[in-house]
Design goal:
Blueprint lengths: L10 H4 L11 H12 L1 H4 L13 H11 L3 H11 L10 H7 L10
Helix pairs in contact: 2-6
C-alpha cells in the first residue's frame, strides 16, 4: 500500500476497505481544487452555505435521508457538480475533492 495510510483515514472509514482508495497526497491535491470549485457553495471547511454542509449533523442527516452509498454519492457529485460547470472535472479531480481529509489543508 505505497503512499496510502489508514491513519490518515477518518475513524468511521478505518474498519472498511474504503481507506485503501485514498492516498496521503489527495488532501494536498484536492484542497486547492475544492477551494476554487466547491467552497463557494459548501464552505471553506465543509460547513455549508448555498450548498449543504458535508460535516457533522448535516452530513448525518443527508446520509440518512438520501440512503446513498459512497459510490452513489460520488457519481452524483461527478455528474452534477460544480453547479455552474456540471461534470467539468476529471475523475481524479473528483476523487481528490471528495477525499474525507480534503478540508485539512484549507484551515
Amino acid at each position: 500500500m505505497t503512499g496510502k495510510s489508514r491513519e490518515h483515514c477518518p475513524s468511521w472509514l478505518r474498519s472498511r476497505s474504503a481507506c485503501a482508495s485514498y492516498s496521503i497526497a489527495q488532501p494536498s491535491a484536492g484542497g486547492p481544487l475544492f477551494a476554487s470549485k466547491c467552497a463557494a457553495c459548501h464552505g471553506e471547511h465543509l460547513e455549508g452555505g448555498a450548498g449543504p454542509a458535508f460535516t457533522g449533523p448535516t452530513l448525518n442527516t443527508l446520509a440518512k435521508n438520501t440512503k446513498l452509498t459512497v459510490g452513489e454519492m460520488f457519481t452524483l457529485i461527478a455528474q452534477q457538480m460544480p453547479l455552474n460547470e456540471l461534470a467539468s472535472l476529471t475523475h481524479d479531480q473528483y476523487v481528490s475533492t471528495n477525499s474525507p481529509t480534503v478540508v485539512r489543508p484549507l484551515k
